[in-house]
């Protein structure tokens, strides 16, 4: 069965619209989500013997890590920025090694590391403007 090209076009348009409207915090979250998706797809493709699909998804995941490294801003916390850079760099090397060795544990390791960072990132999400307005209104009424 061939993938529906119209569905693929719709997904691309939908993603472009989401990126265009996303806050900087949401954009980073989307990068984490994309990374985790590509690692999962690479792992599944490797298990299925689809090495071209695995390689393509590993490359996408590595590109996302490069983007995450490039987006680090050390003005607020140079130490945190440096540690995240080192973590992303380690994940790049580990992912490349896991791909070359067909090592499921390597895919699982980078998934777990980035998932922890993603969860921490989501925990510090700024309040949405409507949530802030609603809480102000609720405080004023109480």
DSSP strand content: under 5%
Q: Uncertain spans, ≥5 residues at pLDDT below 50?
A: 130-142
The CATH fourth-level homologous superfamily of the domain at 28-123: Flagellar protein FliS
- What profile does the largest beta sheet have? none
In the CATH hierarchy, what is the architecture of the domain at 28-123 at level 2?
A: Up-down Bundle
Ends apart, CA distance between termini: 59 Å
Structure overview:
This protein is mainly α and 142 residues long. It has a domain at 28-123: Four Helix Bundle (Hemerythrin (Met), subunit A) (Up-down Bundle). Helices cover 83% and strands 0% of the residues. It contains six helices and no strands. α2 packs antiparallel against α5, α3 runs antiparallel to α4 (78-101) and α4 packs antiparallel against α5. The longest helix has 24 residues, at 24-47. The chain is globular and about 45 Å long. Mean pLDDT is 84; it is low at 130-142.
